[in-house]
Amino acid sequence: MAEPAYTVASDTETTGEEKTSSPFPEIAIGIDIGTSQCSIAFWNGSEVELIKNTRNQKVMRSYVTFKDEVPAGGVSTQLSHEHEMLSGAAIFNMKRLIGRVDTDPVVHASKSLPFLVQTVDIGVRPFIAALVNNAWRSTTPEEVLAIFLVELRAMAETQLKRPIRNVVLTIPVSFSRFQLTRIERACAMAGLHVLRLMPEPTAVALLYAQQQQQSVHENLGSGSEKIAVIFNMGAGYCDVTVSATAGGVSQIKALSGSAIGGEDLLQNMMRHLMPNSESLFSSYGMNEIKSMALLRVATQDAIHKLSSETSVQINVDLGNGLKVSKNVTREEFEEVNQKVFEKCGSLITQCLHDAKVEIEDLNDVILVGGCSYIPKVRNLVQSTCKKVELYEGINPLEAAVSGAALEGAVTSGINDPFGNLDLLTIQVTPLGIGIRANGNNFVPIIPRNTTMPARKDLVFTTVRDNQSEALIIVYEGEGEKVEENHLLGYFKITGIPPSPKGVPEINVCMDIDASSVLRVLVGVIMPGNPHPVIPVMEVRLPTVDDGHGWCAEALNRAYGSTLDLETVQPKKM
Amino acid sequence: MSHGIVSPAAQSNFLNHSKSSIPIASSMLAEASSCLSFNPHLPKLSFSLKTQSGSLRRGPIKASAQSLSAATESFYDLLGIPQSVTPREIKQAYKHLVLKYHPDVSPPERIDENTKRFIRLQEAYETLSDPNTRALYDNHLATGSFIAFSSRKPSRYKEGLDDYGTWRIRWQSQLTELKRRSMNKDSRDHMSWGSRIRRRHRSKTTADDIDRNSTIKV
To answer: According to the lineage, what is the superkingdom (chain A) (predicted)?
Structure first.
């Protein structure tokens, strides 16, 4: 029997060092691992091409089936029937779970999936398992992603007849830097080297920039700067960007994103069809899993039909005497999901606001992702952007992976004689990065939507007399309170000379370099002495490990506010 | 061969002797700053803060009078435009330079240098592309305090630009210190052999004092 194509050395092994090595001459390929679908594309010398599997599919399902000894992914195998998903052996939606702790609402929402997602609710990683021969076999999101990354890689290697190592991956805007380390981990497990991690809508923006550049070459476009809104909604995430494009340069003005997507539409609809479904299925017996999966498949079919029809009849026998028989209208579907759609609209509004762009200045509105076929999504994007026409000429399901493949070619230093690769994306930070200060508040040092690479700093001071130590706790996110943000790491500053509170100046500098590596530098300055009194600390982040959710709470229990910092208040004039 | 002035065992010593070590540090820094000031507006930085890149430790540090004189370079100089330009021309100049200095389009050996330049370009562009901050900057330029100017969020939380200069200079010296220490990659020392020698020459008595008290052996 063939060896499994992937090997897992150790889940705790760090892979950070690999990222910084210089680009290899080979052309990096683009990969889009979606919550429900994945695809792979490469620059073939004149254009981007998606690689098809043996069944001639360019876009494949993102799931892994655990059977017998060797797990098989959706790239190489096909479910003999959609209902094979009912057995509890198929694991999917891992992009929604990767790098999340078991107190995360997104993890709790995943308990309605037809396999085991178990939580103990203390901030450790959730327990995920597939039902194999009537036993729960545990796995991790990283392992599942690695399995289909291996299959994608094998498929590309067979067709391109060369080894594949370097990849550009698309990622959701709302992913924390900790989640990115988990994606890199999955890639390392699959023997892939991550050249770039690109927020999905920025990959689409790059594709758009190339199209604009080509139309200039063909004297079709004006060549002047074009402002575009890109709205990308898939099964797991909804992301928005505003970009300014001119001369092949795509400047990202702002990003916004959230973990909402088709999966939420589906779950709300399942609850609507069967209000007590969650309690019915909570026991995870064989029959419950089957019922849960039957309801899921039927609901998904209904949602698909509602994109073209105004009402649909659902008749499904869930077994155990449970039946759903209901006529559902498109209005009902939209009403049940009103909050999700409102959130989508607010992401666009926020992104436009952050980009300081007026709706009248928009040249194009681009709608991509699996949810772009839903009429309500189209309407809300059109009405929020006050545009009747949406941009044509971009395939909604292939846009992100094509952009990633373009970035792969550009980053690998490939030249195109026709100038089709004279492209550049100027990225911004999707989330703010800062530290805990002023009590339990998050004080950003690099705000979100800061152009990268970046370096910013801020001065803090002690809160107690003779405070000799300070705890630097680094978070990423947008919440005002620290607990609403992602913990990235923590360290102590020691040896602050005895002095009244408010006197020492603790300078915290954050640096994001060209490879998007984050470093935090902290130095202590005392009045009357222009030089640092203790060695400057330099820490590369994130430093937290899996299951870090309880760390902040534990720190708080251990130290209370004794090692706090606060921002330096403006002096009274 | 590691003799750290702040090695764990010597840490308390270091703190006790922090007073006596100040003159040494200052003389070191005075020497270092003349070639190593971390000013974001310098056009050419001959070092890198990245401990990872290795360029800092391997490459010789070039002291250049040029970088000192260029510390007076304004945002307009950075973008290569006169102060009278229109917003449109500012954008054009910026886009032109971005294509030259963005790390993604830089050859590998110039990435560190160009990253620094790009960050300064970005700061210049963000300042000058907003009419309000541009007016403020022009005002600073007229009064000669522009070096301390920054378009970004004020470093003191929710505070104006007034107090920015002083702490910025201090912070720069901190970074200078960090860089100087980072140069010594192979030992856990925070000071290279060469700098220890120089130090001895400069202030023999205090250096000896440190030697006795904090396990430094030359």
So the answer is: Eukaryota
Chain A positions in Cβ-Cβ contact with residue B190 (cut-off 8 Å): 535
Supply the pTM of this predicted model.
Answer: 0.80
pLDDT tens digit string along A447-504? 999 999 999 999 999 999 999 999 999 999 999 999 999 999 999 999 999 999 999 9
- pLDDT class for A21, splitting at 50, 70, 90? very low
Report residue A563 as tokens.
Answer: 């090692």
A38's tokens: 């994945």
Residue A26 predicted with pLDDT over 90: no
The answer, yes or no, to whether the previous bond of A199 is cis (omega within 30 of 0) is no
Q: β-pairing, A166-171 with A29-33?
A: parallel
Residues 6 or more apart whose CB falls under 8 angstroms from that of A357 comprise: A227, A242, A253
Q: Does B178 touch chain A (CB under 8 A)?
A: yes
- Cβ pair A397, A235 in contact under 8 A: no
Which residue, among B174, B178, B190, would best test binding to A if mutated, counting the most A CBs under 10 Å from its CB? B174
| Sequence-distant (≥ 6) Cβ neighbours of residue B47 within 8 angstroms | B36, B55, B56, B59, B61, B179
Give the pair of three-digit tokens for residue A471. 């705890």
End-to-end CA distance of chain B: 10
- Which of 61-120 (B) contact A at CB < 8 A? 91, 95, 98-99, 102-106, 108, 111-112, 115, 118-119
pLDDT, tens only, A377-417: 999 999 999 988 999 999 999 999 999 999 999 988 888 88
Are A65 and A441 contacting, i.e. CB atoms less than 8 angstroms apart?
Answer: no
- Half-sphere exposure (CA, 13 Å, Cβ side) for A335? 6
Spell out which residues of chain B touch residue A529, defining contact as CB-CB under 8 Å: 22
- The pair of three-digit structure tokens given for residue A491, joined into one six-digit string: 């360290």
ipTM of this predicted structure: 0.84
What gap in Å lies between CA A423 and CA A403, rounded to an integer?
11
B198 touches chain A (CB under 8 A): no
Residues of B (115-154) whose Cβ lies below 8 Å from A: 115, 118-119, 122, 126, 152-153
- The answer to whether the beta carbons of residues A400 and A37 sit under 8 Å apart is no
Task: Of A459, A247, A228, A381, give the one whose Cα is nearest residue B96.
Answer: A247
CATH number assigned to the domain covering B73-148+167-180: 1.10.287.110
Min Cα–Cα distance to chain A from B103, Å: 6
Q: For chain A, which domains are there?
A: 17-196 (3.30.420.40), 201-258+338-390 (3.30.420.40), 262-336 (3.90.640.10), 432-567 (2.60.34.10)
Q: How far apart are CA A312 and CA A332, in angstroms?
A: 11
